[in-house]
Design brief:
The complex is a heterodimer of chains A (240) and B (310).
Chain A lengths: L2 H16 L1 H8 L16 H31 L7 H13 L2 H12 L3 H25 L3 H9 L4 H31 L13 H8 L3 H29 L4
Chain B lengths: L1 E10 L2 E11 L4 E5 L6 H8 L7 E6 L2 E2 L5 H6 L1 E5 L10 H5 L1 H5 L4 H14 L4 H4 L9 H13 L5 E5 L7 H18 L2 E6 L2 H7 L2 E6 L2 E6 L1 H6 L4 H7 L3 H7 L3 H4 L1 E2 L9 E4 L4 H9 L5 E4 L5 E5 L1 H6 L2
Parallel strand pairs in B: 3-8, 3-9, 6-7, 7-8, 12-13
Antiparallel strand pairs in B: 1-2, 1-4, 4-5, 9-10, 11-14, 13-14
Helix pairs in contact in B: 5-7
The chains are: A mainly alpha (240), B alpha/beta (310).
């Protein structure tokens, strides 16, 4: 696990996406004779930016809402809502991604906003779940000591509970990110571009080369994201 | 220093503590002991108000502690627990600095204090300050726990079975360390344990508890020699006179050296425990020469001297 790899793999990934000649050489055997080997309308780098935008946008919303929600549900004021919250996020998870996408349609119509909403709802569970689990599993001795040493409830939250929840939260965030990243592949079905666009197009015209182009691009993206988040976990929790 | 008057605690219809009167003098190491469920930990946690008493008065240092803000009160009381409860995400140094930081001390002052305390509890700051708790042994962790409790120089220290999770050897070493630190700092300490040997070893006075009441509150020697009732007698056990010898020295029991003394089977230093001396006599050495720290013979001990001891 090296931090420099986690950082440098992103420009490297974009470099790979931009090498159209290489992609063409790799995928030519899978295209039907006389048909396009690559998705021509939009460059792969541009699709990758769109994909990144969807994932980053959805995850920003997940963090901005999920973390305070989980904290609130474990405070005395919100404890009554804890079972409801756990169940709600669990139910959100049982819906298949396509269904979530289409459920968002009547609200926002076609386009990126509907996709973002669906991805946000979908990504909420692992993060909230991880956070709740982390808050629950804090060593009772640490809380007892914090209380007995004269920390107020705010100090306990910021200096003890949140830092100790970080490993579980980050693991949840990583799961959410990979899930959102994979689900964003379906975005073109609701009218937003992503690395899934060549896949959907390829399926529609029965062109395996296009499907492979999108699939390989998403897979590389997922590997880079997973690695980067693992490095981040190590960096932020050196005490484990 | 601490005065509890008529302290009671009920959980619904069950009374956990009933009419507790207890006074702990400044600089005293008071031990609370008793079988599990006797209320000793509850009583300790009432002193720093982690538990609110249902009845009674609590005075600390002349002030009504029940009228003080509990968070402020706790910042002035050192607290050490069985599970140690070091914060795993903080370095040893940061753990020790927690209360000074809450009290708003400057970084330089915190640092200086924390390093001095680590040295006091026998952890070399240069080696240990930057480590995380999981990189320490159980005994080292509890040393940090003690340093942390002493960080803001509280006059009062509460210790809830701090050594009971440690192996016997480490436990004894830490008991010695605590006595050494106490001889240096003269804190007022309330120490909860269920281990009679530990209580006898550490306590200036011991409060023996049963079912929410204090059965006997006395110096270790008196508790062992004259238990007030059947329960106390059973609790201190049939070996109580042997345990009592553990706090006495060979010096206290010996006959002073006289001119006509014959040869002795062995020697023992005057500050050794009388219990160790007895053990050696029982082991077959007929007479022991008691010597001072320079090796000069100052007296002698035989089994007969133990028979006469009050």
């Amino acid at each position: 696990m090296k931090a420099w790899i986690a950082v440098l793999c992103w420009p490297a990934l974009w470099l790979v996406y931009s090498r159209e000649d290489a992609w063409r050489a790799l995928l030519a055997p899978y295209a039907p004779p006389g048909r396009a080997v690559l998705f021509e309308r939009i460059a792969l780098t541009e699709l990758a930016w769109a994909h990144l935008g969807l994932v980053a946008g959805a995850m920003a919303a997940v963090l901005a809402l999920g973390v305070p929600l989980a904290v609130w549900a474990t405070r005395p004021s919100g404890r009554a809502f804890l079972p409801l919250l756990s169940n709600a996020v669990a139910i959100g998870q049982t819906l298949p991604p396509v269904a979530v996408l289409f459920l968002a349609l009547p609200l926002f119509g076609f386009g990126a906003r509907a996709v973002l909403l669906a991805l946000f709802l979908y990504g909420l569970l692992p993060t909230v779940h991880g956070m709740l689990l982390g808050l629950e599993r804090i060593a009772p001795e640490a809380l007892e000591a914090a209380h007995g040493m004269g920390m107020g409830s705010r100090e306990r939250l910021w200096r003890v509970e949140l830092p100790l929840t970080l490993p579980a939260l980050l693991a949840g965030v990583r799961t959410s990110t990979i899930l959102v990243l994979a689900t964003a592949t379906l975005a073109p079905m609701v009218g937003a571009n992503s690395l899934g666009t060549p896949i959907v197009a390829g399926l529609a015209v029965d062109n395996l080369a296009l499907v492979l182009e999108g699939a390989i691009a998403v897979a590389l993206f997922a590997v880079a994201a997973d690695y980067g988040l693992r490095v981040l976990e190590r960096r932020l929790t050196p005490w484990r | 220093m601490i005065r509890l008057e008529g302290i009671g605690k009920d959980y619904g219809p069950t009374a956990v503590l009933r009419g507790i009167d207890l006074h702990v003098a400044r600089g005293e190491l008071a031990v609370l002991i008793g079988p599990s469920g006797c209320g000793k930990t509850t009583l300790l946690r009432i002193v720093n108000r982690l538990i609110e008493p249902s009845a009674g008065r609590l005075t600390i240092d002349g002030r009504d502690a029940l009228a003080t803000d509990p968070v402020q009160l706790r910042r002035g009381i050192g607290y050490v627990i069985q599970g140690v409860g070091l914060f795993p995400h903080m370095s040893v140094l940061d753990n020790v600095e927690v209360v000074p930081r809450l009290l708003g001390w400057s970084a330089a002052r915190r640092r200086e204090r924390a390093e001095a305390l680590l040295a006091l509890v026998g952890l070399e700051p240069a080696r240990f300050a930057r480590r995380y708790p999981k990189e320490l042994s159980g005994g080292q962790q509890q040393r940090v726990g003690i340093a942390r409790a002493l960080a803001a120089d509280p006059a009062l220290l509460l210790m809830d079975e701090p050594f009971s999770a440690l192996d016997p050897l480490t436990r004894e070493r830490l008991q010695d360390e605590l006595l050494r630190i106490q001889a240096q700092l003269h804190k007022t300490i309330v120490f909860v344990t269920h281990d009679l040997d530990e209580a006898v070893r550490l306590g200036d006075r011991i409060a023996l508890m049963r079912e929410g009441r204090i059965v006997q509150h006395a110096a270790p020697d008196a508790l062992l020699h004259r238990p007030t009732d059947d329960f106390a007698a059973r609790f201190v056990g049939e070996e109580r006179e042997l345990k009592r010898l553990g706090r006495r020295t060979a010096l206290e029991l010996m006959r002073p050296a006289a001119d006509g003394d014959g040869p002795c089977a062995g020697t023992i230093v005057a500050q050794a425990s009388a219990r160790a001396a007895l053990s050696r006599l029982l082991g077959g050495e007929e007479t022991l020469a008691v010597v001072d720290e320079h090796g000069r013979r100052i007296g002698r001990l035989t089994l007969a001297d133990f028979a006469k001891a009050p």
